Amino acid sequence: MPFRLVLALVIVATGLLLPLDAFAGDYTVSYAFDGTTRADVAAGVTSALSEKGTTKECQYGRRCMIELTKSDLTISFSVERSAYHDVVVFADGGRSRSAGCCYFSGGDRRAEKRLTEPLLRLWIYEGQERKRNEYVENIPLGLLYLQFSDLK
Questions:
Q1: pLDDT of 68-126, one tens digit each?
Q2: 100 near 71, Cβ under 8 Å?
Q3: CA-CA distance, 66 to 64, in Å (whole number)?
Q4: In DSSP terms, which residues pair with 88 in a beta bridge?
Q5: CA of 102: how far to CAs of 20, 24, 56, 67, 147, in Å?
Q6: What is the pTM of this model?
Q7: How buried is residue 117: exposed, middle or buried, by Cβ count under 10 Å (0-12/13-18/19+)?
Q8: Across the strands, what pairs with 126?
Q9: 20 to 30 A from 146, CA-CA: which of 43, 54, 84, 87?
């Protein structure tokens, strides 16, 4: 009988002492991807590649991922907990994308921003990576919107 009582107390104490971070995210991200390119706008065409959603499972210092299935893109990012909340964003293409996917402005593989405003707007491109001082002009795939909220 005392063994069961001790076991029950250990289980209850363990459940109460687990960090709450294991059960909820540190911040919320609402996202939208507008796959309509400038050429589409000029032609008066709207794209079926637009997607939106929200994720509440992101934690500081860990990579958070968003799957954009229509566009065959995976967006990953991490936010460092600091007074400024610096964010690093990556975009990767799936099997339907070329080896030259995906880049941000200037042919960079990643975008680093300081969250001075809760909404980030990032163009995603397909083409080639910039090497050293090289000028690169890639094909736009669309515009990614990331809105960060509930930052602690």
A1: 888 888 999 999 888 788 899 998 887 777 676 788 887 788 899 988 888 999 998 88
A2: no
A3: 7
A4: 78, 112
A5: 35, 30, 25, 14, 21
A6: 0.72
A7: exposed
A8: 101, 139
A9: 43
